[in-house]
Write a structure and sequence with these properties.
This protein has helices spanning 30-51, 69-83, 104-109, 124-129, 136-148, 167-179, 197-200, 210-226, 245-251, 278-283, 295-302, 311-318, 324-334, 350-354, 356-364; strands spanning 2-11, 53-62, 86-95, 114-120, 154-160, 184-189, 230-233, 236-238, 256-259, 264-267, 270-273, 287-291, 309-310, 339-341, 345-348. With 365 residues, it is of the alpha/beta class. Bound molecules: iron/sulfur cluster.
Length: 365
């Protein structure tokens, strides 16, 4: 049996399209959803049999996984368990708070153990401007229902630098997260993606400029830390021991299989993905995306983590030391407060994490 893998299962359905989002998802009827769930289970059978690897993390992302209901999600999870086998698996499902009748109890009974809720904001005016389908009362009910069903590993998504957001309103959202006693927060700066409706009306959105965005981000980092959430990655914060094991696989450059339209994989050293269409997924055809897991990729991903990269881990993986040139480049960035360097490690400071793409590019040159 090979090393366990992560399993990403894309659920490409949403009740409507948020104007800033470019994830692959469509509105669909029950029959189309059933057809997709069937195809997903078959694909799980195919890869599970072929790869002969257990799964130690399973992540149902989207789209809106909760839209297909706890029964279908449980059926897909059962297929994953049958054809991969689980190794003490973290099993996460993304939930949209607008789905008020979602059966958390069934999910918990069937072995799901982590919930990620798309809160985005605890202010109704901001949710409205983001065209989200839930309000704050629904978000509150969603979190308390998950907790009542027994979930004790809950993550909330928060968006930073959204239209009309102020430091006070962001603070209210952070307080809401803390009051609800959740274990994990993903806090992302709003990114206006090309081709989305938000992109077309960008100038009228009155979005904060780069400096204001930076200020909001650093403010969120500071307040979340004060509430006991440790920042372990650029956009991710958790109570001790509640880091997302699935997402850590990406940043540790470990392997995972992604199934569904637009899903990416890194399996047996190769990267590949499904195109953004149901036909592509149903045909089983993937697009080759080259090889993965080389030293530069490992460094690039590892530097997103606040712990940064350690020589001992590099040695374990590549049987040699981190090349000196990276330490030398990192030292010049240390002088301007973007990086921390020792003989054994390189990591980005909070300021460095804010401009991580540029800092990492300079280290890798
Ligand atoms: S619910 Fe999530 S995946 Fe669906 S459109 Fe909105 S942001 Fe995108």
């Amino acid at each position: 049996m090979n090393h366990p893998t992560g399993l990403y299962l894309h659920i490409p359905f949403c009740a409507g399209k948020c104007p800033y989002c470019d994830f692959y998802s469509v509105n669909a009827d029950e029959r189309s959803i059933d057809r997709y769930v069937n195809a997903l289970c078959k694909s799980i059978e195919h890869y599970g049999t072929m790869l002969n690897r257990k799964a130690d993390t399973v992540y149902f992302g989207g789209g809106t996984p909760s839209l297909i209901g706890a029964k279908r999600l449980s059926a897909v999870k059962a297929a994953a368990e049958e054809f991969f086998g689980f190794d003490n698996a973290e099993i996460t499902v993304e939930v949209n708070p607008s789905k008020q009748d979602f059966d958390f109890e069934l999910l918990h009974k069937n072995g799901f153990n982590r919930i990620s809720i798309g809160l985005q904001s605890a202010n109704d005016n901001e949710l409205h401007l983001l065209s989200r389908q839930h309000d704050i009362r629904q978000a509150d009910r969603c979190i308390t229902s998950a907790q009542a069903a027994g979930f004790d590993n809950i993550s909330l998504d928060l968006m930073i630098a959204t239209p009309q957001q102020t430091k006070d309103s962001l603070m209210r959202s952070i307080e809401f997260c803390a009051e609800h006693n959740v274990q994990h927060i993903s806090a992302y700066l709003l990114k206006v993606e090309e081709g989305t409706p938000y992109c077309q009306i960008r100038s009228s959105l009155n979005l904060p400029n780069d400096d204001e965005q930076a200020e909001m981000y650093l403010f969120a980092c500071e307040k979340l830390t004060e509430y006991g959430f440790h920042q372990y990655e650029i956009s991710n914060f958790s109570k001790p021991g509640f880091e997302s094991r699935h997402n850590l696989k990406y940043w540790h450059d470990e392997e995972y299989l992604g199934l569904g339209p637009s899903a990416h994989s890194f399996v047996n050293g190769k990267r590949f993905y499904y195109e953004r269409s149901f036909d592509a997924f149903y045909s089983g055809k993937t697009v080759d995306d080259g090889t993965g897991g080389d030293t530069e990729e490992w460094i690039l991903l590892g530097l997103r983590l606040s712990e940064g990269i350690q020589n001992s881990r590099f040695k374990e993986r590549f049987h040699t030391d981190i090349p000196k040139k990276y330490f030398e480049r990192a030292k010049s960035l240390e002088k301007i407060g973007l990086v921390t360097v020792s003989n054994e490690h390189i990591s980005l400071t909070e300021k460095g994490l804010l401009v991580s793409n540029a800092v990492i590019a300079q280290i890798l040159d």
